[in-house]
Write a structure and sequence with these properties.
The chain is an all-alpha fold. The protein is 79% helix and 0% strand. The longest helix is centred in the first third of the chain and has 35 residues, at 4-38. The chain is globular.
Length: 301
């Protein structure tokens, strides 16, 4: 596929995939802000149960009986289960650590995930390790460190939990990229949240806390926003390599500080703006490189 039309198609797919990735991680930032608003009043397992139940119901309304049939007939059930376990471990560890760590500490530690994703993508998906992808990831991670000003981060159990969450999320991203080549986005989302609903439903029983109407509304909103983010992320994974998608994740940093300022009055330090500029620069470098590429990315459909 070396014709100009084929190259234009590949470039368009890359840019579209990056745009979808940015949209997905923006929605995940909204999702995280919603979770943070109730994290001190409700158990993590209860929040994840309610959110996942909402997503499962939406999937069933859209896919109906055929969705269940497709999942039962899938030959990727072991991979789907492993992805669900990895993602669930990441979510639980990340939000549990959120009770002890400041946002800056959590963000700094967690954003090691895109770096891990690039390494794992090269090892397991045989993706090309280009200078632009490595450079963009390095610039983005450096920007995160500057923006978060992580002086005084201590590596206790909460910090190790966030690092563990970053590792599990990176593995889940690699699995999603691989499975998305043969499964529909709806099956991927339905299987993931069905596992969440069953596991979190059982685990939340001993910790169940009565919810006020506004808390129910927030949990319902996390399901709507989280489900949309998951769907868009899977669609992005079909268009761009996991290494590129992982680097795009740095854009969520900007929203974490915006929402922190708007909803919790967290005043960004001056270094935040420098760090955010570097994060944006990393995305622009990556977009420019992917667009300028003279050949189609090997694993782009």
């Amino acid at each position: 596929m070396s014709s100009p039309a084929a190259l234009r198609t590949a470039r368009s797919a890359s840019l579209k995939g990056m745009a979808l990735g940015i949209t997905a991680y923006t929605l995940f930032s909204v999702h995280d802000a919603l979770v943070k608003s109730v994290i001190h009043a409700l158990p993590v397992v209860q929040i994840l149960f309610g959110r996942s139940l909402v997503i499962v119901m939406i999937c069933l309304v859209i896919g109906r009986r055929q969705l269940v049939v497709d999942l039962l007939r899938s030959g990727n059930k072991p991979m789907l289960l492993l992805r669900a376990v990895m993602t669930l471990a990441a979510w639980c560890m990340y939000y549990s650590a959120g009770r002890e760590l400041q946002l800056a500490e959590m963000t700094t530690l967690y954003y090691f995930a895109p770096v891990l994703t690039i390494v794992l993508a090269v090892i397991f998906l045989k993706e090309q390790l280009t200078l632009a992808r490595v450079g963009a990831s390095a610039i983005g991670f450096f920007g995160v460190i500057i923006a978060c000003n992580p002086a005084g981060v201590t590596f206790g159990i909460p910090a190790l939990m966030v690092l563990g969450a970053a590792f599990f999320w990176s593995v889940a991203m690699i699995l999603m990229r691989s499975i998305s080549k043969s499964e529909s986005s709806l099956v991927l989302i339905f299987s993931l949240n069905l596992f969440y609903t069953l596991a979190m439903g059982l685990l939340s029983i001993p910790f169940w806390t009565g919810m006020e109407p506004w808390q129910i509304a927030v949990v319902f909103a996390t399901g709507i926003v989280g489900g949309a983010a998951q769907y868009i992320l899977v669609e992005a994974a079909r268009l761009i390599p996991a290494s590129v998608l992982g680097t795009v994740e740095y854009f969520a940093l900007i929203w974490s500080f915006v929402f922190g300022f708007l909803f919790w009055g967290e005043q960004p330090a001056q270094l935040v703006f420098l760090g955010a500029a570097l994060v944006i620069a990393s995305g622009l470098v990556l977009a420019w490189s992917e667009h300028r590429s003279r050949r189609e990315i090997i694993d782009t459909p």
